[in-house]
Specification:
about 180 residues, alpha+beta, eight-stranded mixed sheet, about 35% helix, binds coenzyme A
């Protein structure tokens, strides 16, 4: 596990407790509507997917926990890790009961600390839908910069949205410290 301030990230376990937590989190409409994959989940699908993911070194799921309250707060997703280019894609979902309490920002700080200062990455990037204002604001506040857009790449709620690519480089991170 990696501790940052009063939160930590730990790898998801292949057990009923974590699987149920992931299904509940990802199925909440507030999360589900804002992530790239709109496919519905149940425990069976999640368990199968998780097992496959655990055998794949290029991606990971981490649960974010409050150290103080000893409870789960949300999820960090990583994939497309490239050790030669030192680049990784991340995503962050906070459970709606904890929205607006600063956990999203703190989780992005933890992501930067872990992947720049320990994993030795040079670039952390992510994709966000153009109408996801909360996430866009969060990523900008965390120092991410728009790199480009996949035009009308996501169909959601009856319309197409741009899918925005954002990143932060180690050099940007150095300036923030
Ligand atoms: C996006 C998300 C991670 C933000 O987490 P959070 O813990 O609520 O965010 P924080 O409380 O740390 O707020 C950090 C910043 O995010 C932005 N933000 C948060 N809530 C916002 C809102 N309701 N409206 C606009 N901006 C908002 C602000 O810039 C805020 O900084 P500020 O408080 O100084 O204004 C969370 O809303 C979430 O999980 N949403 C659903 C899933 C999702 O969209 N995931 C990202 C997919 S790319």
């Amino acid at each position: 596990m990696f501790i940052y301030d009063d939160i930590l990230m730990r790898l998801v376990e292949d057990n009923d407790f974590d699987i149920k937590y992931l299904v509940d989190l990802r199925s909440h409409s507030d999360i589900w509507m804002n992530v790239g994959n709109i496919k519905m989940l149940n425990t069976y699908i999640e368990e199968k997917w998780l097992k496959k993911m655990m055998d794949d070194d290029s991606q990971n799921y981490y649960i974010i926990c409050s150290v103080k309250d000893n409870c789960n707060i949300g999820l960090i997703r990583t994939d497309q890790i490239e050790f030669i280019n030192k680049s990784i894609r991340v995503g962050c979902d906070i459970h709606p009961i904890f929205h607006g309490m600063g956990y999203g920002f703190k989780s992005m700080c933890m992501i930067k600390k872990y992947f720049f200062d320990y994993y030795n990455m040079n670039r952390i990037w992510l994709m966000v839908m153009e109408k996801n204002t909360r996430a866009l604001n969060l990523y900008k506040k965390a120092g991410f910069i728009e790199e480009g857009r996949q035009r009308s790449a996501i169909f959601r709620d009856g319309e197409y949205q741009d899918y925005i690519m954002m990143s932060i480089l180690r050099s940007d991170y150095g300036l923030l410290k």
